[in-house]
Amino acid sequence: MGLALYHYNSSVCSEKVRMVLNEKGETGWESHEVDLFTGGQFDPAYMKLNPKAVVPTLVDDGRVLTESTLIAEYLDDKFAAPPLKPADPFERAQMRLYSKMCDEGLHQGVAVLSYSAMFMERLRKMPPDKLKTHLSRIIDLERRDRQTAVYHDGVEAPHVYRGTVAFEKAFQKIDKSLADGRTWLFGDQFTLAEINLVPYVARLEYLNMLDIWTGERPNVVAWYRRIQARPSYKAEVSDWMKPEELPEMHNAGTRNKARIAEFRTHYLENDFGAKVY
Predict the structure, then answer these.
(1) How do the domains of the chain map onto residue ranges?
(2) In a 10 Å sphere around its CB, with 0-12 CB exposed, 13-18 middle and 19+ buried, how is residue 67 labelled?
């Protein structure tokens, strides 16, 4: 039966799983695109695979795996070469802190930054009955609350400020790791830390917001450009973007850019703001 991946072209979580497959040289997987904007994730057949109605979902010889971070680790364990986790147990645990940071902060952050900039307008164009149906079908109550808040308050929703802070903390940590001139976050080895982080960084660039955090961090910019130069990035992130999505994301993000920069400045001016956790 082999590998089958249920995914969406511009989903950050789908991008990182596709990158792992590419880095492992696994190009023969069966692709099933789930259109998140037409409700494909709520199809009963798909929800049998993924009751949370999110992407991606990996099916390996009939065995179903969900949660992109766990799928990435599973694929790294399943396909030995090249290894995408440090051999040293301590460094492996440190790598997982980056994964945890993505799952607990950046994912919510990129969702609200994207929604407040771009997807909010799509929601506002929905007829009230369709909007109500859309929101009621979101199983994750926190996610439903975020989308509802952004729908009503746009960039001023408190979740957007929190997302801005989550990215600031992440870039502080990345910059500190790269300060000694290393190529990757764990020295010479390209790892799941890069793969888990880069879709979120790329989304900021598509939204024309990345330089808010990287304008004074040349090491981070160089690190990101090195990732972009990898074949897996081009094949599994940029090549999946639809041409019509790029100007829409750029223009939508630009409208909110000044306000997001103000949020970051506000955070940094507080006593806790300059500390790296």
Answers:
(1) 3-78, 89-268
(2) middle
Q: So what's the architecture of 3-78 in CATH?
A: 3-Layer(aba) Sandwich (3.40)
Helix (H) or strand (E) holding 31: strand 30-33
Q: For residues 58 and 13, what is the distance between their CA atoms, to the nearest angstrom?
A: 12
DSSP per-residue codes, 196-229: HHHHHHHHHHHTT-THHHHTT-HHHHHHHHHHHT
Residue 100, pLDDT above cutoff 80: yes
Chain-wide mean pLDDT for the chain?
92
- Give the pTM: 0.93
What's the CATH code, domain 89-268?
Answer: 1.20.1050.10
Using 50, 70 and 90 to split pLDDT, how confident is the model at 146?
Answer: confident
17 neighbors 7 (Cβ within 8 angstroms):
yes
- The pLDDT value given to residue 271: 55
> What CA–CA distance (Å, rounded) separates 198 from 205?
10
